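TICKET: design request
STATUS: open
ATTACHED STRUCTURE:
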């Protein structure tokens, strides 16, 4: 079936063709102008005011334009100029250490970068051009590196609740992760949180190898929707140059809320809890950008998703769980070893150190036994000698490995596990293979 060629020139929609305004959405009659989805527009009105926008949908003869700065103040006699181009960003390797808004405008006081123009919001990579995930990404966080190893090209969320230190965790990973480039996307940050996170990135030495795109609550909803596409397009172009890129996003629930707001402006019928019916598709389009490119670099995605009232059935975490390859669960300042899961960890933890898998299994099993011992204590039952040892082990485990402020290389973390075991158990009490005990018990 033949398709019509995409128009490339500038076309102007006359003022009398503006049909309505609501929220961030402008409705126009662009009959004969052949607009296309994603086309960049300029909306201008009589007092020399203007704003950029993009075509987002069609309803019958109407074209819906998302106005980046919102339609507040936009006159009904506005003129819409269709550019003939899709939304793009300027990519340059010199953007490391730079900070941009969600729309790609520099926020660091420096000039706009010079480089090649690349599209945003492009489809995910053809599976034929992907490698199987096989490269361990060390983060410096023991609860990830030992128990749920991160793998290059993996896509995995951090499920948490508002108020937890998930942004601090992302910054710590940015500073310690074994990645060539970090691309950080902030969505829905308060201005104070944005300033705090930027200062942390600077003081921890992570900003020099990072590119940051930031949307705050002072910015438009439309900019929030652009942020992950800006982040992922930048990451993809670095990866195609052979770089291993770690994408850090926070908070995808804010992105989903922005989708909900846009849906309301468009007058669409909402689905579960008011979210769009295509929420799964919108999330998957972003997460599926994770890729290990054949003959090039990789994109790994680690994204915060907050759960209102710690509700796993909320549409955002619920849909996310069907897309991603596991999840990290952050609660009470610790990553929960029982609820967290990396479905790709078996691809890499067999090659890190011979005791990795054994230690991982033994520590979690003993910690589960310690939970049972704690329940006995809470109910007033008498504790035996092993129960007391398990409780002592659990305290050391939580303090020395589970706390978010703990960072150390993988081998040092494994050695710490052995030290905790030696301090609390006899070697005959441990669920470990004999050859591992012979090789590591007395080290």
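STATUS: resolved
RESOLUTION: sequence designed for all positions
ATTACHED SEQUENCE:
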């Amino acid at each position: 079936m033949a398709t019509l060629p995409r128009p490339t020139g500038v076309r102007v929609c006359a003022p009398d063709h503006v049909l309505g305004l609501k929220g961030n959405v402008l409705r126009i009659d662009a009959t004969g102008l052949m607009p296309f989805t994603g086309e960049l527009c300029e909306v201008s009105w009589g007092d020399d005011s203007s704003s950029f926008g993009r075509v987002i949908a069609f309803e019958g003869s109407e074209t819906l334009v998302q106005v980046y700065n919102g339609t507040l103040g936009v006159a009904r006699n506005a003129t819409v100029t269709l550019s003939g181009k899709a939304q793009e960003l300027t990519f340059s390797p010199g953007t490391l250490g730079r900070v941009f808004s969600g729309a790609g405008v520099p926020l660091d006081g420096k000039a706009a970068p010079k480089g090649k123009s690349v599209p945003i919001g492009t489809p995910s990579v053809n599976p034929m051009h992907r490698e199987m995930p096989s490269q361990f990404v060390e983060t410096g966080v023991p609860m990830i590196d030992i128990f749920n190893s991160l793998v290059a090209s993996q896509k995995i969320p951090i499920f948490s609740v508002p108020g937890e230190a998930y942004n601090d965790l992302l910054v710590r990973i940015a500073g310690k992760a074994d990645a060539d480039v970090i691309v950080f996307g902030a969505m829905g940050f308060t201005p104070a949180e944005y300033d705090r996170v930027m200062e942390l990135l600077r003081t921890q030495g992570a900003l020099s190898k990072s590119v940051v795109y930031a949307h705050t609550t002072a910015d438009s909803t439309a900019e929030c929707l652009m942020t992950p596409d800006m982040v992922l397009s930048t990451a993809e172009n670095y990866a195609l140059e052979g770089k291993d890129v770690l994408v850090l996003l926070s908070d995808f629930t804010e992105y989903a809320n922005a989708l909900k707001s846009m849906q309301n402006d468009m007058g669409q019928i909402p689905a579960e809890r008011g979210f769009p019916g295509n929420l799964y598709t919108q999330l998957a389009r972003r997460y599926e950008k994770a890729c290990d490119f054949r003959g090039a670099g990789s994109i790994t995605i680690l994204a915060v998703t907050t759960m209102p009232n710690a509700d796993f059935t909320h549409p955002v975490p619920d849909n996310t769980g069907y897309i991603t390859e596991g999840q990290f669960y952050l609660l009470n300042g610790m990553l929960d070893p029982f609820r967290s899961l990396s479905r790709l960890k078996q691809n890499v933890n067999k090659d890190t150190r011979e005791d990795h898998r054994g230690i991982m299994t033994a520590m979690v099993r003993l910690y589960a036994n310690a939970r049972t011992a704690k329940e006995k204590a809470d109910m007033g039952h008498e504790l035996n000698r092993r129960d007391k040892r398990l409780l002592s082990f659990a305290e050391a485990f939580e303090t020395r490995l589970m706390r978010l402020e703990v960072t150390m290389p993988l081998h040092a973390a494994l050695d710490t596990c052995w030290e905790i075991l030696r301090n609390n158990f006899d070697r005959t009490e441990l669920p470990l293979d004999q050859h591992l005990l012979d090789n590591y018990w007395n080290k």
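CLOSING REMARK: The chain has a mean pLDDT of 91. The CA atoms of residues 14 and 390 lie 75 Å apart.
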